[in-house]
């Protein structure tokens, strides 16, 4: 396999799951079913059956969605390798997707990651009872204005900016009342839209620190290796080679903001001009286009889309 220094892979996080995902790829490539079987053995239930015949509500449960999305991304990456696709020079994942990047870059074994992300989802859900916390997307407002508004809205509770997804799209999270107050103030400041998100916990906020402490205990015995392909991390928008530092960043990632704009800008700084979204859907492709229109973005979750991505990469190699 040839390394393409202008190519990066990105991996989606929670919210990209959908019923019937990867069904076309599974019909064409047996590695999909094999990958799902491996995950099912760890989880103790049939993950493929859940993804194809479960309910959307069950797919949306945090401790179900996280191993599902990880497994889908790893399955597509394995097809890419099987088909001799070019090796990317960098990887990055949005939130849960960063675990997919670590598996595909050789930092963590797949079966270890499946177990850890199931626990990650469970702990994140259990830390803040349903209804206590919430999240909202703020569209069309300057980042600094949102940060200032959050401070004003706290009033003894907690709310902060937790996902810097693209210019003009920031997600806030915290106690439900504080998030509601911040949303109202954002509208007063001129936000185009404030959308409450259908999530069950205030992800990537300080309220999730106890979940990170619990996961750190489980991660202590898991071997992290040096990456074969560098991963740009959510917490600081930089790549890291030290396995102990990577482990620490993955603990912090649970309660610190996702700096997705910084991650994409770092890809560009490192001369990336083409990106493949490796996983279900095209959420990250849309965000990347809004961050930097010079980047060519391809998706991969159907045989047709994957074939197009593979052909483009092979054409570049020639």
Automatic annotation (TrEMBL):
SMART domains: PKS_AT. It catalyses: holo-[ACP] + malonyl-CoA = malonyl-[ACP] + CoA. The active site is at 95, 204. One of its GO terms (biological process) is fatty acid biosynthetic process. GO terms for molecular function: [acyl-carrier-protein] S-malonyltransferase activity. The keyword Transmembrane does not apply. Gene3D superfamilies: Malonyl-CoA ACP transacylase, ACP-binding, Malonyl-Coenzyme A Acyl Carrier Protein, domain 2. It comes from the Bacteria. Residues 10-302 form the Malonyl-CoA:ACP transacylase (MAT) domain. InterPro entries: Ac_transferase_dom_sf (IPR001227), Acyl_transferase_dom (IPR014043), Acyl_Trfase/lysoPLipase (IPR016035), Mal-CoA-ACP_Trans/PKS_FabD (IPR050858), Malonyl_CoA-ACP_transAc (IPR024925), Malonyl_CoA-ACP_transAc_FabD (IPR004410), Malonyl_transacylase_ACP-bd (IPR016036). Keywords: Acyltransferase, Transferase. Signal peptide: none annotated. The keyword Ribonucleoprotein does not apply. It holds the Pfam family Acyl_transf_1. One of its GO terms (cellular component) is cytosol. Its EC number is 2.3.1.39. Belongs to the fabD family. PANTHER family: MALONYL-COA-ACYL CARRIER PROTEIN TRANSACYLASE, MITOCHONDRIAL. This is Malonyl CoA-acyl carrier protein transacylase. It comes from Candidatus Endobugula sertula (Bugula neritina bacterial symbiont).
């Amino acid at each position: 396999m040839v390394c393409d220094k202008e190519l990066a892979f990105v991996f989606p996080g929670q919210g990209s799951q959908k019923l019937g995902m990867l069904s076309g790829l599974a019909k064409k490539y047996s590695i999909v079913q094999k990958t799902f079987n491996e995950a099912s053995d760890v989880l103790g239930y049939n993950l493929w059956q859940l993804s194809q015949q479960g309910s959307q509500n069950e797919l949306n449960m945090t401790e179900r969605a996280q191993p599902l999305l990880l497994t889908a991304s790893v399955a597509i990456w394995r097809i890419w390798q099987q088909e001799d696709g070019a090796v990317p020079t960098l990887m990055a994942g949005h939130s849960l997707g960063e675990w997919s990047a670590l598996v595909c870059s050789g930092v963590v074994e797949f079966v270890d990651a499946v177990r850890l992300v199931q626990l990650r989802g469970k702990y994140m859900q259990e830390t803040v009872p349903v209804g206590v916390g919430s999240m909202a997307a703020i569209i069309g407002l300057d980042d600094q204005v949102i940060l200032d508004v959050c401070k004003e809205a706290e009033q003894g509770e907690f709310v902060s900016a937790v996902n810097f997804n693209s210019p003009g799209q920031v997600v806030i999270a915290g106690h439900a009342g504080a998030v509601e107050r911040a949303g109202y103030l954002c509208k007063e400041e001129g936000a185009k839209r404030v959308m409450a998100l259908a999530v069950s916990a205030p992800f990537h906020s300080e309220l999730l620190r106890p979940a990170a402490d619990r996961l750190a205990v489980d991660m202590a015995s898991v071997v992290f290796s040096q990456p074969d392909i560098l991963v740009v991390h959510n917490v600081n928008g930089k790549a890291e080679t030290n396995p102990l530092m990577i482990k620490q960043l993955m603990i912090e990632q649970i309660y610190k903001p996702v700096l997705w704009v910084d991650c994409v800008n770092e890809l560009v700084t490192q001369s990336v001009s083409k990106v493949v979204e490796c996983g279900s859907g095209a959420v990250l492709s849309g965000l990347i286009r809004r961050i930097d229109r010079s980047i060519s973005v391809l998706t991969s979750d159907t045989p047709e889309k994957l074939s197009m991505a593979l052909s483009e990469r092979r054409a570049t190699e020639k």
